[in-house]
Amino acid sequence: LFHIFGLILIPATLIILAHESWQEGMLSRISLKIRYSLIIAFILTGIAGFIYKFSTDIFFRLAFVAPIETRFTADGYTLLSVLHLTDIFSLFITLFPGLLISLLLLSGSKFRLLIKTVECRWLIFLAASTVSVAFIVDPKLGMVRDWDLFAFSMIPVIVLSFYALLIEGSKLKTRRSVALLLSALALLTIFPRAYADSEPEIAVAQFRDHLDIYKVRGQHSWIHLVNYYNDIGDAKAAKNANAEGNARFPEVKMLAQANKLYYKDQKQNEAAKLLYRMLKINPTFSDAYGFLGAYYMERNQYDSALTLLKIADGLNPGRVSTMTNLAKAFYMNGYPDKALSLLQRGIKLDTLRFAVRYNMALLQRELGNFDKYIMYLELAVSRDDAPPRIAVELLQQRLMYNEINDAIRLLNRYPALFSDTLNISTFRKKFPAFDSALQLLQP
User: What distance in Å separates the CA atoms of residue 129 and residue 116, rounded to the nearest whole number?
Assistant: First the structure.
């Protein structure tokens, strides 16, 4: 239900559920003037709520295509830009090649006839909702890459079109033939696309065309071209593609320099200056915002960190490392519930690595939820990339609460802990019961 398509179903479904209900009966007894006033008030309330959320929530704002160009606008991609309108038209025709034919068939008196039936009203409301969402939501990687995320938008349009063609009425035989032709057209358009995707030269040329169309948005896509050449064993082409990508996006090379300054050279302030220079080159570079957010977190400037990390998360949603840092910033700014929610999302997104689970464990400990702290600590330790110190921390917690059997089981699961002779020796001296249990295990 809470997939975006599930949420879009709600308004159309509520309208249909109200059909012939007491609410509709009550509305029918109200004068037409008052009824229209209520509808206008409802619409204006929705618009006002959207504008308020748009102006106060950076993540919400960056989720939509901007109506006018702002500092976060990439490739001049605004709501009425030629590129966006072309993208939307191309998306709809790709998903439903017979769209224009269908619109002609459903125009005029046919549409007025359809809207009288409850089923078609529901489909019309739903189609209007899905198409509107596809129009205003921002395809972060460009529509040619994110088209699958917007594929749901044409489902109600296609169902409505075929339903209208196949319901009982005049010229049913002719309309059935049209429906078959629309199906055949959709099937035929698949083959050129499948052929282009299966031929390496055509696919690479097409991919490069997409990178040329979306010059800024293509930044995170360029690595796929490099990886492709590496996968087929063409080291020279991979090297050339990497060099071309660095030339197109100097901020990527600058990010590597900032990493060196920050971690190896310990020149954090110089690294921050370099990061701000990157944002002058590319104001939508999420990595720079995320890096700066971490920089301010280390300096206990949590309000600045929160703002920057919100921007990073909005520009590149779903990146678990950003979400983890943002959760820390929320907590330090006094929003523990938002921090918990973000980390829970991160755990669902990242099933392999320890970091987000360990940060959740630390947060639960700060909140005084010891049982959950241990639970998430165990989950963190169970990941392949978990460092030994995490297992040592869990072992210490088991011993502190005299859970000797659990501590021994942990050692059996992670024999490498025995090599940490300093900590094991300390624990044996501090916890005699643990020392006795280990002596029993020794041959």
Answer: 19
- In tens, the pLDDT along 284-312 reads 899 999 999 999 999 999 999 999 999 99
pLDDT in tens, 126-171: 898 899 999 999 998 888 888 888 998 999 999 988 888 887 556 7
Among the listed residues 392, 404, 395, the one whose alpha carbon sits nearest the alpha carbon of residue 434: 404
**φ/ψ of residue 21, rounded to 5:** -95, 175
As a residue count, the chain comes to 443
Q: Which residue has the higher pLDDT, 103 or 347?
A: 347
Structure tokens at 343: 């980390």
Do 396 and 428 touch, CB atoms closer than 8 A?
no
| Helix, strand, coil shares, percent, the chain, to 5 | 80, 0, 20
When pLDDT is cut at 50, 70 and 90, the band that residue 1 belongs to is very low
Q: Up-side HSE of residue 168: CA atoms within 13 Å toward CB?
A: 1
Residue 137 bridge partners (DSSP)? 64
Residues 6+ apart with CB under 8 A from 126: 8, 9, 12, 156
CA 41 from chain centre, in angstroms, equals 33
Conformational region of residue 170, where left means phi above 0, alpha means psi within -120 to 50, and beta covers everything else:
beta
d(C-alpha 362, C-alpha 294), whole Å: 17
Identify the CA nearest to 145 among candidates 194, 210, 72, 242: 210
CA–CA distance, 376 with 389 (Å, rounded to integer): 15
pLDDT digit string, tens, across residues 384-406: 898 888 989 999 999 998 888 98
**pTM greater than the 0.90 cutoff:** no
- 163 touches 123 (CB < 8 A): yes
Q: Are 427 and 411 in contact (CB under 8 A)?
A: no
